[in-house]
C-alpha cells in the first residue's frame, strides 16, 4: 500500500456495528478489509464489495475517492459534507470504519490533523510508518486523542520491515502504540510470520492479513487464505494463544480488477479454519 496523509474537525461519529453469527466474534476478532484491496474503485464501491464478501469492518486508506456523487478523497481535508456522506455510506451498509492507514505526515501540525480527522470519523486505530523524528509526536497524539496507533511493516528495505525495529520504536512511548502486523510483507522479506508474531506478543493491535503463493520472494502475489505458504491455522492458533483482540484487514493486492471472489473465499476459509 502507498503511504498518504489524512485528518480534521468534528461531527457525529458512526456507530459501531456488532458482528453476529461469525466464529471470530467469540475471540474478539473483527474480520474486515483494507479498502486498498479495492483501490481501483471508489470508497462507496469498495463498501459494496466488502459487504458482498460478508465482512463488516473496513480500514480506509488516504487518497481514495469517496464516490457516490463526491469527487473528494479520504484525507484530513475532507469537507464536513464529505464526512457526513462517508458516515451515511457506512451506516447504510452496516459497516464499521475501524482503522485508517497506512498514513504519513511531514510535520507535527499535519499529524495532528490526521488524528483529528480519524477521531471525528470514529476510527479506533491509525496505521502508519512514522519517520523516526516523528515518533514522539505520534506518541503524544495517541494519548491526546485516545487513539490506538499501529506501526506497520512494509517489506525490506523499508524502515519497519523487521519486528525488532518496531519494538525499538515503541520503547518508552505511549501504551496506545503497538504493531500493525502485515504477515504477507514479512513473508516477502523472508521472515517467518509465527516467529515475528511471537516477538511482538502483547504489542499487536491490528493485522494486515495476506496469504502468498511464495515465501521469501518480493514478487510473490496474494492467493486465497489457506491456499498459500502462510499457514493459516498456525497463525490463528498463535493469535489465539496471545489472546489478540482487534481487526484483521484483508489486504488483497492481486487480480485488482476482480478480486472480490478471492476475498470472499479468503473470509470463508478463515472462518472455516476457526
UniProtKB/TrEMBL annotation:
It comes from the Bacteria. Signal peptide: none annotated. Pfam families: AP_endonuc_2 (PF01261). Residues 48-262 form the Xylose isomerase-like TIM barrel domain. This is TIM barrel protein. It comes from Sphingobacterium humi. The lineage of its organism: Bacteria, Pseudomonadati, Bacteroidota, Sphingobacteriia, Sphingobacteriales.
Amino acid at each position: 500500500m502507498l503511504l498518504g496523509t489524512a485528518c480534521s474537525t468534528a461531527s457525529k461519529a458512526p456507530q459501531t456495528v456488532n458482528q453476529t453469527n461469525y466464529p471470530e466474534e467469540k475471540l474478539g476478532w473483527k474480520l474486515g478489509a483494507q479498502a486498498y484491496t479495492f483501490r481501483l474503485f471508489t470508497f462507496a464501491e469498495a463498501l459494496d464489495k466488502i459487504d458482498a464478501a460478508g465482512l463488516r469492518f473496513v480500514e480506509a486508506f488516504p487518497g481514495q475517492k469517496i464516490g457516490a456523487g463526491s469527487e473528494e478523497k479520504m484525507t484530513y481535508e475532507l469537507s464536513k459534507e464529505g464526512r457526513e456522506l462517508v458516515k451515511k455510506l457506512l451506516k447504510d451498509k452496516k459497516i464499521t470504519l475501524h482503522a485508517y492507514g497506512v498514513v504519513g505526515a511531514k510535520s507535527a501540525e499535519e499529524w495532528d490533523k490526521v488524528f483529528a480527522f480519524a477521531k471525528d470519523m470514529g476510527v479506533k486505530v491509525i496505521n502508519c510508518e512514522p519517520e523516526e523524528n516523528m515518533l514522539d509526536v505520534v506518541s503524544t497524539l495517541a494519548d491526546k486523542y485516545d487513539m490506538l496507533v499501529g506501526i506497520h511493516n512494509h517489506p525490506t528495505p523499508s524502515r519497519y520491515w523487521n519486528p525488532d525495529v518496531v519494538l525499538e520504536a515503541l520503547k518508552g512511548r505511549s501504551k496506545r502504540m503497538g504493531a500493525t502486523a502485515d504477515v504477507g510483507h514479512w513473508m516477502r522479506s523472508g521472515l517467518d510470520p509465527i516467529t515475528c508474531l511471537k516477538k511482538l506478543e502483547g504489542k499487536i493491535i491490528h493485522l494486515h492479513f495476506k496469504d502468498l503463493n511464495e515465501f521469501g520472494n518480493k514478487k510473490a502475489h496474494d492467493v486465497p487464505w489457506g491456499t498459500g505458504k502462510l499457514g493459516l491455522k498456525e497463525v490463528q492458533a498463535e493469535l489465539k494463544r496471545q489472546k489478540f483482540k482487534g481487526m484483521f484487514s484483508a489486504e488483497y493486492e492481486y487480480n485488482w480488477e476482480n478480486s472480490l471472489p478471492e476475498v470472499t473465499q479468503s473470509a470463508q476459509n478463515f472462518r472455516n479454519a476457526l
